[in-house]
C-alpha cells in the first residue's frame, strides 16, 4: 500500500478522444502527450489515445518523441521544440517528425539527416501572432526557400505546415481571426513555392477543436482536453471526463486541545478540541504551498479545508469530531463524483489553469491505471 497515488482512468481518456474526434469533422487526430502525458503517463496515455482513434502523437521535446519510439510506437510522432542539445541524430534514426521555424533549425535537421542517411520529415512552423516558436511572416519566405533546397537535396521532406494560437481559449478574441488569416496567407505562399500541396495543415489545439471550426484544417492537436479538463472552463466541461484522481492515505490521527497551532507559522489554530489528520503529500509532490489554509480535499465523508501550511511532504486536515483513522483515504481532487474537489476547482482557487495542477504531480506519486472497457 502506497501513501499516495494518482489514479488514471484510461477509459476516460478514450472517451475524451472519441468526443474530440466528433468535433474534428473528419480531420486527422494528433494526440498531444508531452510532459509525461500532462502528468498522466505518456506511454499509457498514448496507447489509450491510439486505441480510441488518434492517428498521430505530439510531444514538445525530441527526447519525448524518441522515448515513444523506444516504447514501441510506430505511428507518426512530431516533436516541436528543438534545442541545441536535443538528440536530432536519434530522432532521424527513429523516424521522428520535427518542427522547424527557422533556417538555422532546418540546417541542424538536415545535418542530422545526412549523418543518419535518412530523409527527415519536417513540419514548417509559422508564427502567426503568438511570438514564440515559428518563423515570422517576414522570415517565412526564406524558410520556404531553404526548405525547398533541402528537399531537393533529399535531406528533408516537408509533411506539415502549422501554427499555434495565443488566445483560442478566449472566445471571440480578435487575434483568433487575425492568426487564421495570417496562416492562410502563409499556406498560400507555400503553395506558390510548390511546398504546401501535400503538407498537412494544422492549427487547432483543444480550445479550437471544440469552438473554432475554421481552425480544424487537415489535422487537430488537442492536449489538455484529452485528459478531461476543459480548455475553456467558463463554457463548461463539453462532456469531457477528468482522468486523474489524486488520493492519499492518512498517516497519523490525533486529538488536540483548543488553541493548538498547526504546522509551520501557526497559520491555523484550533478553536476547540478536535481531530487532526496528517496527509503525506506536500509541495514536493505538487500540492502547492499556496493551497495553505485554503485548498480543499475530501475526507471523512465531506470536504475539508487544508489546516495551516502545506509543507514539502505533508499537510494537515481538521475533521472535528468526525471519525478518521490512519490509513483512511483522502481524495485531493478527482472528477467530483463523490463530492471531492476537481482539478478545475484547485486551479480556480490558485488563479491558475488545470494544466499546472496535473503536470505538477511529482514522481514520488505512483500512477495507477485502470481501464473499464467502456467505449
What does this structure look like?
With 375 residues, this protein is α/β, with parallel strands linked by helices. The strands form 5 sheets. An 8-stranded parallel barrel has the order 2-3-4-5-6-7-8-9, surrounded by 4 helices. It has a 4-stranded mixed β-sheet with strand order 18-10-1-19. The chain is elongated. The chain has 11 helices and 19 strands. The mean pLDDT is 96.
Which labels suit this protein?
375 residues; elongated; eight-stranded parallel barrel
Q: Which helices and strands appear, and what pairs or packs with what?
A:
Layout: E1 4-9, H1 10-23, E2 28-32, H2 34-38, H3 42-51, E3 56-61, H4 62-70, E4 77-81, H5 88-93, E5 97-100, H6 103-116, E6 120-125, H7 140-153, E7 156-162, H8 174-192, E8 200-204, H9 206-211, E9 219-220, E10 244-249, E11 252-256, E12 261-262, E13 268-269, E14 274-279, E15 296-299, E16 302-305, E17 315-320, E18 329-333, H10 343-350, H11 354-359, E19 367-370
Parallel strand pairs: 1-19, 2-3, 2-9, 3-4, 4-5, 5-6, 6-7, 7-8, 8-9
Antiparallel strand pairs: 1-10, 10-18, 11-14, 12-13, 14-17, 15-16
